[in-house]
Amino acid sequence: MFARTGQQSAAFYVLPALLFTAVVFIAPLASVIGQSVWNGQFTIHSYQSVLSSSLFQKVLVNTLVISFSSTFVALLFAYPMAYHMAKQTPRRRALLMMIVLIPFWTSILVKSYALMIILGRNGIINTTIGYFGIPALPLLFNRFGVIVGTIHTLIPFMIFPILNSLLARDPDLGRAAQIMGAGKLRIFFKVTLPLSMPGVAASFLLAAVHTFGFYVTASLLGGRGDLMMANLVDLYTREILDWNMAATIAVLLFILCAVFTLLMGRTRALSTLAG
Amino acid sequence: MRETAATANHATWVSHCANAWAWFGYAFLVLPTLVIIPMSFNSTDELAFPPDSFSLRQYETFFLKSDWLSSTFLSFKIAIATAVLAVVIGVTAAYGLARSSFPGRGAIVLFLLSPMLVPVVVVALGLYLYFATLGFSGSALPIIVGHTLVAIPFVIITASSALRHMERNIEAAAMIMGASPFQVFRKVTLPLLKSGIIASALFAFLISFDEVIIAYFVGRAGFSTLPVKMFSTIQWEISPVIAAVATLLTILSTGICVLVTIIMDRK
Amino acid sequence: MQRTTLTQEPMVRLTGVAKRYGGGVVALDTLDLDVTKGEFVALLGPSGSGKTTLLNIIAGMTPPSWGSVHIAGSDVTQLPPSKRNLGMVFQNYALLPHMSVYENVAFPLRVRKLAEKDIAEKVETVLELVQLAHAKQRLPRELSGGQQQRVSLARCIVYDPSLILMDEPLGALDKKLREQMQSEIKRLHRTLGTTILYVTHDQEEALSMADRIVLFHQGRIVQQATPADLYFKPRSVFAANFLGASNILSTTAVGEGIAQLKSGEPIQIGSGAPVSTNHPVKLLVRPECVRIERREAASRAQGTNSVSGRIVSSTILGNVTNHHIVIADGHTVMAQELTRRAAQDWAPGEEINLTWAAADTRALEPDEMEV
């Protein structure tokens, strides 16, 4: 608690950030919205043409399918990994944290490039199975490649909130599991898993929303048929040069993310991430 | 009794499997990036694993071909400017939020963090259209501004957590001893936040240095950053020089992660 | 007892101060308090009794919901902490961890923009005073808890504030160091003549250090008095129990200055709250006032109370021995004696008489807010 005078002056420290965000974030967002409905005059024509375009419909489905299937598979990795980390001593956990943190902070280009080397026609996997006379598998420039790349990016992203919720609810997870012995499995399914569900739900939705806007992974690891919404925005901006369409698709992508973010707020899952 | 033992065995078996799966996950996270490093020492222009012979040829290309190097310098300049801007704006905001209470504070926090929740491509398109009307073409400023916007939420989150862990009475003591609010901020809060500030500056730098989409949309001719150059190169060919660039980028991000961990630990 | 006359302007004057939080939580009920210049006042009470809230209101860290705070004659209610010219010592020292001992002590002088020469001189003097001149280049974390608290004291007295607030300053130290620091703080108080407001929940600390004790309970001041008065003349059961050990007898008043145990034995009352006949009254007898006598030898003199009892147990606590005795009405009474061979003669089960002077029997006010 500070004196009232202190509270007022402290509030001024927020002003630069507010101004910056307003000028550099809200104004551009407004110009995207403006561009989507303004073509010499106010019109929602571009929304009609985007929503009825078969390309957009295909890309929307692509985006949802890639996002949710990648997020689901990533969760299958992230949860056991977070649980494994939660059980370790703080020292070992810090070490494993580095293993997760470094890929998290590695450039998406580096990660995508690495997967191209591994999954490509002459990549490590296909070369290896070639030794055994197995014909090359199509692993790159298709849906599979995009999903593998997305999963790779999402796993660290999902581990943090799950690990937080595991540790917040049960800081003695490791010790408890050891003492319980035979009851371990039961305790996991009856106590740990249900208690960590809010964290899991939060990280699932957050990761899915995060994926809606993915751009690099699909354009490097996918084929022509694996475009996502962000790639479509780019396509209309740089190649077709139709800014109305580009802006409209961007607005729709924004709405899609907003809807799911609100959904997340409704489940009060966001609050578990704030902690 | 026998039933309990069987359950125990069953549980042990399941937990072994879960552990193995987790380790598979760690390997999946780390190995692909590690594969790049030997590739970068390849002597031929073809991608083959394992490389036939050791050579520094790809690094030569990177350091001697001027266009790679100039992109790298541009990225450095932008990333440093971003780190400075984001830290100044973000840390002051975090301080203001942590040390005050006013109506609508929650909404302001959400507002300041919202650039994190909006797809980068939407921000990038917005900045592209915005700066096209303002006519800032031919300058790195739009990229710096866009990167700062993306980095500020990270800085606010890092600095807020450092502020939360700070002993509150120290600031109170300084105030009672006669220090004005600004003196408290300058002479007490900032020095105590030092490691948090360095950590957030390093992350802001890295966010900017690795950022592709905004730089790709907003950067004009002659202003392609290292990631943008790398991105457009990879789209056309899987050139081994990319392996050298990727290795250098990996070393940079690993170095920053390790540095931040050390800084935060020492505290 | 160095009590200054109350005719001069009080150093601190609180008028109608109260603190209420949202949801109607009363942290501090409306109170008035004056502190004389040079006085050492202890704010004593269990945790959550409002004493720290009051300290924060005086410091300016918490605005009061009502009332005004005057320091040295001027109204500071609206002033920020930095403008009140106070010093404060915290339980966890609150030293600036990134500055040396010297710089910590110099800090308040630097914000006051003193010349470097004057700063050096003053800092050297106070470090000398707290016996830390040798450690001036060290960082706080290189010092022991006691040394850190001495730095924090030095940092307070160096700018000669009109009032020093101390919030459980010795709470983090072990018993031996605490006693040493208590006498050090007393010595500084005597030497400098500063006004000190000292928050503590430790009754021994308050008794041994303060000129005056203000006793808090559930957001109110229940009594304020000199340590001796508070010990010998507590007003309520809470005050009697909070300071020192006490035997509280439940009796019924049967006349002017006389009450009766449930078992019918009469008790003469020496002092305290007025009693009304046929109403219940709680009587305080300090354990050290109670004598154990053999049944047949028990004195029946005027001005002496005597009740029969049976020894339950005796415990040696070092230089004193506590005896627990069940008296006729079924309650247990404690009698305290200095530990001597003779004091060990009482065996459990032995039938004895307890005697104490009527003057040591005090009638207490019923607690308004008994839990």
What is the arithmetic mean of pLDDT of chain A? 86
Strand content of chain A: under 5%
Name the CATH class of the largest domain in chain B.
Mainly Alpha
Bulk shape of chain A: globular
- The secondary-structure class of chain A comes to mainly alpha
The portion of residues forming beta strands of chain B comes to: under 5%
Which homologous superfamily in CATH is the superfamily of the largest domain in chain B?
A: MetI-like
Mean pLDDT of chain B: 88
Structural class of chain B: mainly alpha
The gyration radius over C-alpha positions of chain A equals 23 Å
Q: How would a crystallographer describe the biggest sheet of chain A? A: none
Low-confidence stretches of chain A: 1-6, 269-275
What is the CATH domain class of the largest domain in chain A?
A: Mainly Alpha
The helix content of chain B is over 70%
CATH superfamily of the largest domain in chain A: MetI-like
Q: Helix and strand layout, with pairings?
A:
The complex is a heterotrimer of chains A (275), B (267) and C (371).
Chain A: H1 4-11, H2 15-37, H3 45-52, H4 54-87, H5 90-105, H6 108-119, H7 124-131, H8 143-169, H9 173-180, H10 184-212, H11 216-221, H12 229-239, H13 243-266, H14 270-274
Helix pairs in contact in A: 2-13, 3-13, 4-8, 4-10, 5-8, 6-8, 8-10, 10-13, 12-13
Chain B: H1 2-39, H2 57-64, H3 66-98, H4 105-113, H5 120-134, H6 141-164, H7 168-176, H8 181-192, H9 194-210, H10 213-218, H11 226-236, H12 240-266
Chain C: E1 12-21, E2 25-35, E3 40-44, H1 51-59, E4 66-71, E5 74-75, E6 86-89, H2 101-111, H3 116-129, H4 145-157, E7 163-167, H5 175-192, E8 195-200, H6 203-209, E9 212-217, E10 220-225, H7 227-232, H8 237-242, E11 247-255, E12 258-261, E13 266-268, E14 271-272, E15 280-285, E16 291-294, E17 304-316, E18 320-327, E19 332-338, E20 351-357, E21 362-364
Parallel strand pairs in C: 3-8, 3-9, 6-7, 7-8, 14-21
Antiparallel strand pairs in C: 1-2, 1-4, 4-5, 9-10, 11-12, 11-15, 12-13, 15-21, 16-20, 17-18, 17-20, 18-19
Helix pairs in contact in C: 2-3, 2-4, 3-4
